[in-house]
Amino acid sequence: MTQDAPTPKSNRWTTRDVLTFVVFNLIIMAVTIVAKMIEDMVLAPQNTFFVGSWLFPLLATPFYVVMADRIGKRGVLAGSTLVFGLLYTFMGGLYCAPVAVVGALIGELVMWGKDSYHDIKRVVGGYIVYWVTFGFYGIMPYLLFRDAYMEQLGTYYDAADVAAMVAQYTELPWILLMMAMFATGTIVGGLIGSKFLKKHVRKAKIA
Which positions, given as ranges, span the membrane (predicted)? Predict the structure, then answer.
């Protein structure tokens, strides 16, 4: 997955960098929202765990890989993490904001170093941190206010679905499985993104 990196650039973001960041994050947002809507229509709530955990990263990572390479500057991962963390916060999950901040800090530490955003392996590794952070958006409600959250879920889902979701987001084997699926989807998506980046984006000098 390692590729020759483009010529190093200044770490100062340009207007084009900001536009690239906005456009690609909007694409990632649209792709994951549509995938989630289809998933919810097709699968029972207790089964979405086994699909979304690898499908969402698989769909989003190719776009992130291209965005990270085209901008190639510090803050891409932290910015993406914070943008989506704030989105989930405004949707009612106030606990998502501090989780996003921690994820953004850890992600940028993982990406620390010269030209890290042009190194596909580093980019994919950093994006795994993003998806682990995403996983904690689902875990935190059970840790902070489990009984109230279960009661809220009970108004939308039957008892079997609620029991399954509680297990999936509170029991360590299920949590580790979720993180492994996040990592797998991100790695496969990174392979797809790196091939597209090498064959099309860098040659055409687009984005």
Answer: 18-35, 47-67, 87-112, 124-145, 174-197
- pLDDT-based confidence at residue 51 (cuts at 50, 70, 90): very high
Residue type, position 163, single letter: A
Cα separation, 146 vs 156, whole angstroms: 16
The structure tokens listed for 175 are 């949590």
Distance CA 124, CA 145 (A): 33
Q: What is the DSSP letter of 69?
A: H
14: region left, alpha or beta (phi > 0 left; psi from -120 to 50 alpha):
beta
* Contact present, 110 and 121 (Cβ < 8 Å): no
pLDDT for 10 equals: 65
Q: Could you state, in order of their start, the residue ranges of all structural domains in the chain?
A: 15-44+52-204
- State pLDDT tens for residues 12-45: 899 999 999 999 999 999 999 999 999 989 998 8
Tokens of 83: 């943008």
Instruction: Report the C-alpha gap between 41 and 35 in whole angstroms.
Output: 10
- Cα 43-23-17 angle, rounded to 5 deg: 140
Q: Is the dihedral of CA 184, 188, 189, 193 positive or negative?
A: positive
Euclidean distance between CA atoms 107 and 68, whole angstroms: 13
Q: Is 58 helix (H, G, I), strand (E, B) or coil?
A: helix
Confidence of residue 157 (pLDDT cuts 50, 70, 90): confident
Question: 4's torsion region: left (phi>0), alpha (psi -120 to 50) or beta?
Answer: beta
